[in-house]
Amino acid sequence: MSERASREKRDPLARKKARHTPPSARSRAMHAMSARAAMGRFVLQVCTSCGTATYPPRDACPACWGELAWQDIENGGQLLSHTIIHATTDLYFRDHLPWRTGTVALDAGPIALVHLHRDLAPDDRVEVRILLDRSGNAALFAFPPDRGFDMTDPQLREFIVPVQGKTVLVSDARSAIGLAMVKALHDAGAGLIMAGMLPPTRIADADHPILRLPDVQMVPLDITDQVSLSEALSKIGGPLDIVINTARHVRSGGVSGGANIVEQRRAFEVAAIGLTRLAQSCGPMLAGRSHGAFVDIISSDALTGSADHAGFAAAEAARLSLLQAFRHEIREAGVRVLSIFTGPVEDEHHQSIPPPKVAPARLASATIEALQKGREQTCVGDVADDAMTRWLADPALYAREKNL
Amino acid sequence: MTLTPNQTLSTMIAGIADGAIRAIDLTNILSSDFPVIVLPSEFGQCEPFRMETVSRYDANGPAWYWNNISMNEHTGTHFDAPAHWVTGRDIPNGTVDAVPPEDFIHPAVVIDIAPQAAADEDFIVTRAFLEEWETRNGPIPPRHWVLLRSDWSKRVGTLSYLNLKDDGAHSPGPDADAMRFLVHDRNCIGLGVETVGTDAGQSSLFDEPLPAHSILHGNGRYGLQCLTNLDQLPVFGSIIIAMPLKIKGGSGSPLRVMALAPTDAA
Hints:
The complex is a heterodimer.
Chain A: H1 28-37, E1 43-47, E2 53-54, E3 68-72, E4 76-85, H2 91-94, E5 99-106, E6 111-116, E7 125-132, E8 138-143, H3 154-157, E9 167-170, H4 176-187, E10 192-197, E11 216-220, H5 226-234, E12 242-245, H6 261-287, E13 293-299, H7 310-331, E14 336-342, H8 360-372, E15 377-380, H9 381-393, H10 395-402
Parallel strand pairs in A: 6-8, 9-10, 9-12, 10-11, 12-13, 13-14, 14-15
Antiparallel strand pairs in A: 1-2, 1-3, 4-5, 4-7, 5-6, 7-8
Chain B: H1 5-18, E1 21-25, E2 50-58, E3 61-70, E4 78-80, E5 105-112, H2 114-119, E6 124-125, H3 127-137, E7 145-149, E8 164-165, E9 168-169, E10 173-174, H4 176-185, E11 190-193, H5 211-218, E12 222-225, E13 238-242, E14 252-254, E15 257-262
Helix pairs in contact in B: 3-4, 4-5
């Protein structure tokens, strides 16, 4: 393979760069904010008695001691002041100095200490978003309202996962989702896309126009096979930044009726054990990177089970469980773990399911967006959106309705 | 001079020891990337070989190395018992655990179809081809393994081994008349091939589909697949040792297949 211009060049004798993460201790109330920020929501606590919005998160209303409830709220504000930090004892911030913070008067009421986009000046109108820092905790970040996300701001890049120039592994690139993912990564300017080709492979697979794009390298990969995984990773001639796990085994079938044990076992091998294998093998590689990320495409059936795709849903539930554990485990290495929830996809595995279905291209673009907007969790399409909303509102009721 | 059984055995062992008789391994390496047969998607699929290390002189077992393995009965170099096919469902002792031990060892005849298979990857072995082969080489003796040397084993490690194209797999194999000839007129023990199945890649489209499986097993004969090194065997005079695992009620089994052949005949 020819050397790629985008490849990172490094001093061969330089000691490995230690990666630090920002301080991670937070209150329980702050974790609640982080959980919502992970979904890309802008929320503040609002008093159920006096209606005052408050920040930072607290256990009671500072105005009336009333009860606080999380509420999606307007995110505009006015920049009041700014400070540039040049010295700190914190190891993470020392690596990223100078660092710019400021105070913003939120339109919702509170005055908040925020991280600042480099293009902002005092008195500017701002748009505040809640992003996750490298430790996975919520942090307020103020942007110019009309500029959206300018990805080149180095301070902003600490809160997101840039795709441009990065080396990305797509675990199953031959499926409709995988092909769309490779294409979206290419369009987003990824440096090298390793496209996992699940055996058995047709001879003509190598001729697929997407897989023949210049920045795509095909590699045989079956995540249910440790040997195959090790060999695939050995073919990545450089650092690995992002893993996108598109592997899944979608089959219909029930539990006592219509269950196919072989298919069910396979679903678990791919979704659950496969995820562990992939995480085990790639985790250390991602941990060495400044913007490492592991993305998992997961069915919203994982939340509740699914009577007609019981084995698949169970395997996806196991996958979700493992993903939560992995996220927690690798957070301290600064690696972001993303769950991309989807309902039925417009592909060969969901031929007998009526619309609405998610187009693979939409799933892929939502994945790129989640990375670049710094989310940990996204629901793509009406089915997954609806599933998450209903599950958050009343999990017991939704599990019942879903399996009627 | 007639040898006593004792003399026969000791002569053979002496021949192996002094190199007059060669032991040839006809087995491919059982590894996770060795291809398995691919059936149309409406059918259940064959699981490939998988190996998980339990310990390797490490915390899980400081002084010992061992693995858990899993696979289909028809993964890698493997044996097909009569019960593998519906036609062989009522054959007595049709499962691998019941194969009579005297069937573990039989002589073989090697039929070279490598030039034909190189020219046409869908090459079909017909009765006419076999009869013509016999006029040149002599008759196929009874109670022999018939081994088709296609050189397909040289494709192992490449996509052209399974050779999956948009219209299915493409690899050589026999037609139904050839199989009836081998089974009924030549009383073969079984058919051994280098390809992933005893039948041709496109054989599900034949007027009589999957004739090797259907006719071999319906008549209590065996199959050997994914063989290698057939090019090292003489046309006549080799002996095949093929012992499937004793899986209770099993339809087939991965196995080590070896041949004994006179060194000077190679």
